[in-house]
Amino acid sequence: MNILYWSSSTLINKLLYKFIKDSDVQVPAIHWWYKTASHAAELTAGFYNPTNQNGYSPVFEVLRKHSVTLKFVCLGLQVSGLENDEALADPEGLSWQVLNSAWDRGLIVAGENALLCYEREGYMRIVEMAKPRSDPDRRHFSFFVYQQPTPLVQGTICFSELDYFIKSMHGEIAGDLQP
């Protein structure tokens, strides 16, 4: 038996055990080495997702079968081009694959930011991921968990930007979401 297939199967079996306790499952955005044929970082996490196959599909089929919500833990912030190049990372490509695979299987999809963001550009990246304007099926996150900053960094937050983000997520601000 292929060790990579076994690892992926083990991950799916662990998910089944988790269903007994939870109604949502978090899937992290493991985007480094995504531009390689093997997607080595995802392999390390148990996702057999090489370039020629959708490794999230079997996991999402199990989630759908048990009516579990997928909570996609995404970055929200732009990783610098140099960091992306060095890590062969593609956060947007991975997000597109994960979200479309989940939505195509009829899953309820939610999101959560992994890194804090305080400026409009970061907020608007989250809004575009949560409510893609280019999706003809108008699919979107059912909810979004915003990780709040600690009291030590709250002085760096521009509350007018946070207000803009919240209104954008609720659909109160439409049109051009660019900073």
From TrEMBL:
Gene3D superfamilies: Glycosidases. GO terms for biological process: polysaccharide catabolic process. It catalyses: Hydrolysis of (1->4)-alpha-D-glucosidic linkages in polysaccharides so as to remove successive maltose units from the non-reducing ends of the chains. One of its GO terms (molecular function) is beta-amylase activity. Keywords: Carbohydrate metabolism, Glycosidase, Hydrolase, Polysaccharide degradation. Its EC number is 3.2.1.2. PANTHER family: BETA-AMYLASE 1, CHLOROPLASTIC, BETA-AMYLASE 8. Belongs to the glycosyl hydrolase 14 family. This is Beta-amylase. It comes from Quercus rubra.
